[in-house]
Design a protein that fits this description.
The chain is α+β, with helices and mostly antiparallel strands. It has a single domain, classed as Alpha-Beta Plaits, CATH 3.30.70.100. Helix 1 crosses helix 2. The longest helix has 14 residues. 19% of the residues are buried.
Length: 73
């Protein structure tokens, strides 16, 4: 079976308001196998822009973020 190519995924994550939120989302994505993770967060609006490379399904990434208590779109 061929290995899937890494693709760049961009998501908006609602409910992020502090550095702990940023770390939780980053750690969850790393455990899933994502790499080159970047989080740009607006603490006042409680929204983060998350970009990363991932060889899996985008919905899997959304699911792990939402399992941490955030809303990913």
């Amino acid at each position: 079976m061929a290995k899937r190519k890494m693709v760049k995924i961009n998501l908006t994550v609602k409910g992020m308001h502090c550095n702990s939120c940023k770390m939780l989302v980053t750690d969850a994505l790393q455990e899933l196998g994502a790499s080159n993770i970047s989080v740009d967060m607006d603490e006042k609006k409680q929204v983060g822009k998350v970009a990363f490379e991932f060889a899996g399904n985008k919905q899997d990434a959304i699911n792990v973020i939402e399992a941490e208590g955030y809303k990913a779109v």
